[in-house]
Amino acid sequence: MTKIQNVRGTYDLYGEAKRKAKKVISVGSNIVEKYGFEEIETPIFEFTEVFSRNLGDTSDIVTKEMYCFQDRGGESLTLRPEGTAGVVRSFISEGMQQNLPVKLYYTGPMFRYERPQKGRQRQFTQFGCELLGVETPQADIELISMAYEFIESLGLAGNVTVEINSLGDTESRNNYREKLVSYLKEHFDELSEDSKNRLEKNPLRVLDSKEECDKQVVANAPLYSESLNEASSKFFADVLKGLDDLGIKYRVNNRLVRGLDYYSHTVFELVTDKLGAQGTVLAGGRYDGLVEQMGGGKVAGIGWACGVERLSMLLEEDTSLPRPIAVIPVGEDTNDEAIKIAYKLRRAGYRVEHSYNGNLKKRMMKANKVKAYLAVIIGSDELASQQVTLKDLDKGEQRTVMLADLLKEIK
Ligand code: ATP
Ligand code: MG
């Protein structure tokens, strides 16, 4: 029989890696809740068209990364590759437009059929947030500052740069598109097959290509900033000024476009040089057209999402749990008392490791292995006089205390 193993690109998260991922999510949740965001949990799968119609039919995700399947009723469903489309679907189907603005955050697994490598998995976790119903640059400033505070709270601000660009409104986008297409046509032969294709359907996507030949062409492409109309330039300038006022450092990156079709105006990424090619740890942007495109009203939106595993890999903080107290019964007849003592200590707030079996020596070794700082040793003779031994496992000192005083003595 072949050995059962996990699917390529998926990982079992446990031990330190799980603790770090949990830390990233709890720090993130605390911060976004301060900004008024509430958690939402949408299903892990949606009708395929929730993604295929809205992420852009030339995007990497839709063309080659989605996990689509037919269920037994013949519906075409897709494991979510990202969070925004599902949250916006929920915003519309739950009628949340009645009460704007709406601020939501989510966390959970995403699925993309990608070539697995460091920082690139087929199932990975995102933590993200969406702000719906605010058209003004204040939303952009607030969301970026929130992302910054999050990264800073993880102790990673020193490693991370905020990169930002503006794609402008529809008019600016069309302006730019024309200039870009005529430029790319002059360099048609130098482009990858994928990009030749994109040139027809969605030329902006070429800017996002990871192929070396495309990158060379893109290096000299017209700059987005030259195509922004007045309103879009002003919007972008306001966002940058807001960041300046908050003392948040950024780098305007004129080549930054995002991989999905729904973005307009502000797009941004938080990038580190510590993860090689997979350096983007958090990414987001404004998506003013998305709600309408998905059949809702004209509602502006902006959001970001981070890769929890990528952030976890950068986290240097010690995430180990507090050291426990070991409760060690010596002899069969003290087992019941040991259980009672462990229960009492746990209810008083201590982490307690009960040593289940073995002789005293073995149990003491076990206590060291779980890094206990203190042992409560329960012997039959002592117990008869309502006493136990407390042993400081770092200093090796021990003393006998009355069972009734145990909590007081431990303090
Ligand atoms: P990339 O350019 O690296 O493919 P992307 O533009 O596809 O990233 P987004 O869709 O913006 O990524 O997702 C937001 C974040 O989620 C990324 O910045 C990254 O940290 C994380 N992420 C995306 N895809 C993966 C993956 N396959 N494995 C692990 N993390 C990922
Ligand atoms: Mg990708």
How are the SSEs placed, and which strands pair?
Layout: H1 15-34, E1 38-39, E2 45-47, H2 48-52, H3 60-65, E3 67-70, E4 76-79, H4 84-93, E5 102-111, E6 123-132, H5 137-153, E7 160-166, H6 170-186, H7 193-201, H8 212-218, H9 230-245, E8 251-252, E9 264-272, E10 280-286, H10 290-293, E11 301-307, H11 308-314, E12 325-330, H12 335-347, E13 352-354, H13 360-369, E14 374-379, H14 380-384, E15 387-392, E16 398-402, H15 406-410
Parallel strand pairs: 1-5, 7-8, 12-13, 12-14
Antiparallel strand pairs: 2-4, 3-4, 5-6, 6-11, 7-9, 9-10, 10-11, 14-15, 15-16
Helix pairs in contact: 1-5, 1-11, 5-9
Bound molecules: adenosine-5'-triphosphate and magnesium ion (MG).
Could you write a compact summary of the structure shown?
The chain is α+β, with helices and mostly antiparallel strands and 411 residues long.
Please identify the structural class as seen in this structure. alpha+beta
CATH topology of the largest domain: BirA Bifunctional Protein, domain 2
Helix content: 25-40%
Give Rg in angstroms. Answer: 28 Å
- Main β-sheet, in a few words? 8 strands, mixed
In CATH, what is the homologous superfamily of the largest domain? Bira Bifunctional Protein, Domain 2
CATH class assignment of the largest domain: Alpha Beta
Number of spatially distinct domains: 2
List the uncertain runs: none
